[in-house]
Design goal:
The protein is mainly alpha-helical. It has 13 helices and no strands. Helix 2 crosses helix 7, helix 4 packs across helix 9 and helix 11 packs antiparallel against helix 12. It starts with 8 loop residues before the first helix and ends in a 5-residue tail after the last helix.
């Protein structure tokens, strides 16, 4: 009798769970996939309807300009059109005015057409499509048998049709908003910061693992870089006919300052509190770290859910307790027995905590603005 092997059942169940959860975990990517596909098909259909000579460029333009957010599509479209129109006009003029009947003249004319476009592209990223367009327009007459000016016009028309298709699809087919992506990235950064804060504050009462600090700061830096990438898309998105959204600038600046605060705390925590002060200050400073982490975690959830942030009262109470305990130690004269370096570290820590308190207040205000935003 053949025995049935059930050893693979848990593995199969696990794989099925991962497969079942995958769509929910990749909604943004799946929406982009659908938008790009719709853009490609509509661009091809419109090219045939308008009888454009090369549907390839219309379809490619629509695909390239359909970005993960509406703001990204707007930015890509404006940049692509600027580079295309500029490159097409210039290359068309070069093709019409610079003779290139023989091979040597062809090389020279191509250099004249490409070099300025490449220089402008290197100087201003908005015109990165200019060199590519210049080459396309310069050689298009050999493919379409049209003149240089006609080739430039056709190139601009093809790109314009593709751009219109890409924008329409980005607006109408499951539109992704840069504001949503920015708040998601901000929420992620705050969650990372909330995890890092207790580890950093632990250094004041015990030896801190210095090797762990760069890893913590690198994770925060990567999350901040993601935010910096999305922020310009949100500015372009405000040109779109959406309900007015709060300015992302204050939130981004606040998160940058909070990251700097954590850098300063990490530097201060490399050396523990003086042994004479540690019994009295270890618990208050640990409470400050715990309350800061709790507030950052709550703000992360509030931004993600577009809800009002919690009160900062518990964190500010912890700060007051720490300052009161430190003031007591000063009145008792314990700080006068410390060396100059230890006193400087205490002052630096006090200043950093004041900055952290102010920036957490700014964070609460920014989170409240997005919670009150229309359609948020």
């Amino acid at each position: 009798m053949m025995m049935t092997d059930h050893s693979d059942i848990p593995l199969l169940t696990l794989d099925w769970e991962r497969l079942r959860k995958w769509p929910a975990q990749h909604r943004t990517q799946l929406r982009l996939c659908l938008r790009v596909t719709v853009s490609a098909v509509l661009a091809l259909a419109l090219s045939h309807l308008l009888q454009l000579p090369l549907a390839l460029w219309t379809v490619l333009t629509a695909v390239i300009l359909t970005q993960i957010s509406v703001g990204g599509s707007l930015k890509a479209t404006l940049d692509y059109l600027a580079g295309t129109i500029g490159g097409a006009i210039y290359a068309g003029v070069v093709g019409a005015l610079v003779p290139h009947e023989n091979e040597a003249a062809l090389f020279a004319a191509l250099a004249i057409a490409v070099a300025p476009a490449a220089l402008v592209s290197a100087t201003n990223p908005r015109f990165r499509a200019a060199p590519f367009t210049a080459v396309m327009v310069f050689f298009a007459p050999t493919i379409t048998h049209a003149g240089p000016i006609a080739s430039a016009f056709e190139r601009v028309l093809q790109v314009a049709v593709g751009a219109v298709v890409g924008l329409i699809v980005s607006f109408l087919v499951l539109p992704g908003r840069a504001q949503d992506l920015m708040l998601e990235a901000a929420s992620r950064l705050l969650a990372i910061a909330a995890t890092a804060v207790p580890a950093l504050f632990a250094g004041f009462s015990a030896s801190l693992d210095e090797a762990a600090i760069p890893h913590i700061q690198d994770r925060l830096g990567e999350a901040l870089a993601r935010l910096n990438t999305i922020a310009p898309e949100m500015k372009h998105e405000q040109m779109a006919p959406f309900a007015e959204a709060p300015d992302s600038g204050p939130l981004l600046r606040t998160l940058i300052r909070l990251r700097h605060d954590l850098v300063m705390i990490g530097r201060a925590a490399i050396v523990p509190l003086p042994e004479k002060l540690k019994p009295a200050l270890a618990a208050p400073i640990e409470a400050v770290g715990q309350e800061a982490a709790a507030f950052l975690r709550a703000c992360s959830s509030a931004l993600s859910a577009r809800k009002l942030p919690p009160s900062l009262e518990r964190f500010e109470s912890a700060i007051e307790s720490y300052n009161a305990q430190l003031a007591t130690l000063r009145r008792e004269g314990l700080t006068r027995e410390l060396g100059t370096e230890a006193v400087e570290r205490l002052f630096a820590l006090g200043f950093t905590l004041e900055q952290l308190q102010q920036h957490l207040r700014d964070l609460a205000r920014c989170a409240s603005e997005f919670a009150r935003a229309p359609n948020a």
